[in-house]
Amino acid sequence: MIEAVKESGQYTTTREAERITRIVLSALGGHVIGDERVELVRRLPEEAAHLIASQIPVTRPLTAPEFVDAAAARIEGSTPATARWDVGAVLCTLPGLVGDDLTDRILRHLPSGYALLFGKAELTPAA
Questions:
Q1: Structure pTM?
Q2: Inter-residue contact 29 to 106 (CB < 8 Å)
Q3: H/E/C letters for each residue in 2-25?
Q4: CA–CA gap between residue 18 and residue 25 (Å, rounded)
Q5: Is 55 within 8 Å of 26 (Cβ atoms)?
Q6: H helices present in 1-127, as ranges
Q7: pLDDT tens digit sequence for 6-54
Q8: Neighbours of 24 (CB within 10 A)
Q9: CA distance 20 to 7
Q10: In angstroms, rounded to a whole number, what is the distance separating the alpha carbons of residues 119 and 68?
């Protein structure tokens, strides 16, 4: 997973990719709940799974922009633009690791806007 994040985010060191991955997955962990959380933990590598599982579920999910802002606050030297890049670098690796089916189920439980962070189109139901 770390190598995929390193490549996706074009980070120069594995250590930097690991740091960003820890921050983003810790933030995501509180937003994924129920069966999707259990399945995500099962499908991720052990350390990543622990980051998700150890988070207390949030009482109010953050909007996608709030999620990026929260990540920016935890990433030293981050700006809103670099935080979007970092969040995307991590979350865009998840569909390849855990499958599109689980990713789509996770996205159904998150506020609108998260699909783009996962590298997916934001689909809206037909009226």
A1: 0.91
A2: no
A3: HHHHHHHHCCCCHHHHHHHHHHHH
A4: 10
A5: yes
A6: 2-9, 14-29, 34-43, 46-53, 64-74, 80-91, 94-98, 100-108, 114-117
A7: 999 999 999 999 999 999 999 999 999 999 999 999 999 999 999 999 9
A8: 27
A9: 13
A10: 14
